[in-house]
TrEMBL record:
CDD domains associated with the record: ABC_PhnC_transporter
One of the record's GO cellular component terms: membrane
Name of this chain's protein: Phosphonate ABC transporter ATP-binding protein
Annotated Pfam families: ABC_tran
Species annotation: Rhabdonatronobacter sediminivivens
Entries under InterPro entries matching the protein: AAA+_ATPase (IPR003593), ABC_transporter-like_ATP-bd (IPR003439), ABC_transporter-like_CS (IPR017871), ABC_transpr_PhnC (IPR012693), MetN_ABC_transporter-like (IPR050086), P-loop_NTPase (IPR027417)
UniProt-listed SUPFAM superfamilies: P-loop containing nucleoside triphosphate hydrolases
Residue ranges crossing the lipid bilayer per the database entry: none
UniProt xrefs under PROSITE patterns: ABC_TRANSPORTER_1, ABC_TRANSPORTER_2
GO-annotated molecular function: ABC-type phosphonate transporter activity; ATP binding; ATP hydrolysis activity
Length: 236
């Protein structure tokens, strides 16, 4: 269970997120909807602790995420796995190596210096690629792939991080409709099979309707809607 209380972030005079409170249960697939600049990205980055809150608290399964430091913070960042609009793969590395990047935080330092992964890590990476239907591309360079394929590799990388939560920040904003369906379908399948909660920023309400169990509307940093997909249709 993810619990957010009064979460606020200011950038100078801009209140990017304004006292947002919400709870997300295991297995929920939450679409976060709002215009550009509404605060969606700030919300996800606050949860991952890429951005520090000005006020408020984040609690996950009873533990205060906002108080984490050092190793515990690194663990949390790995567990709250981010998916980005621009995939954030390393072009020069193979698909398999890009997925192994997700294991770095779980690998002893001396092994990462020499890039020695255990056979077990490679097996996990291949298994994750297989779930995303990308195992056949494991040895290609990341930049040989289409955008939709790159995003599926990024999801595989998130999976090997042993995530407890998936935070997807506009994961399909730069993809064509076919790739969009493949990526959203993959997130939905992982959500259903693993019971992982997913928070997914979207700016198309139609996508949220098709894939999400719950929709959160954000406007000028404030929560303006929170409910099941059907309630949105009633409100419109
Ligand atoms: P969204 O993801 O909904 O497009 P953001 O969370 O990116 O919105 O931005 C919310 C507001 O906070 C915007 O006004 C944006 O300009 C501002 N903002 C976000 N990040 C920063 C930053 N690092 N520095 C200054 N202002 C920022
Ligand atoms: P370090 O300070 O150990 O070199 P970084 O600052 O690169 O580590 O990253 C800090 C933590 O954030 C690491 O545990 C890493 O796994 C995690 N991290 C980096 N990128 C992502 C991402 N895209 N999604 C989730 N966690 C990430």
């Amino acid at each position: 269970m993810l619990e957010i209380e009064g979460l606020t972030r200011k950038f100078g005079d801009t209140i990017a997120l304004d006292a947002v409170s919400l709870r997300i249960a295991p297995g929920e697939f939450v679409g976060v909807i709002g215009r550009s600049g509404a605060g969606k990205s700030t919300l996800l980055r606050l949860i991952n602790r890429l951005v520090e809150p000005s006020a408020g608290r984040i609690v996950f399964d009873g533990a205060d995420v906002t108080a984490k430091r050092g190793g515990a913070l690194r663990d949390w960042r790995r567990q709250a796995a981010m998916i980005f609009q621009q995939f954030a793969l390393v072009d020069q590395l193979s698909v398999l190596e890009n997925v192994l990047v997700g294991r770095l935080a779980l690998t002893p330092r001396w092994r990462t210096w020499t890039l020695q992964f255990k056979a077990e890590d490679r097996a996990l990476a291949i298994e994750a690629l297989d779930r995303l239907d990308m195992a056949q591309h494991a040895l290609k360079r990341a930049d040989e792939l289409s955008g939709g394929q790159q995003q599926r590799v990024a999801i595989a990388r998130a999976l090997v991080q042993e995530p407890r939560l998936i935070l997807a920040d506009e994961p399909v904003a730069s993809l064509d409709p076919r790739s969009t369906a493949a990526v959203m379908g993959a997130l939905k399948r992982i959500n259903a099979e693993d019971g992982l909660p997913v928070l997914c920023n979207l700016h198309h309400i139609d996508l949220a309707r098709d894939y999400c169990t719950r929709i959160i509307g954000v406007r000028r940093g404030q929560l303006v809607f929170d409910g099941p997909v059907e309630a949105l249709d009633d409100a419109a």
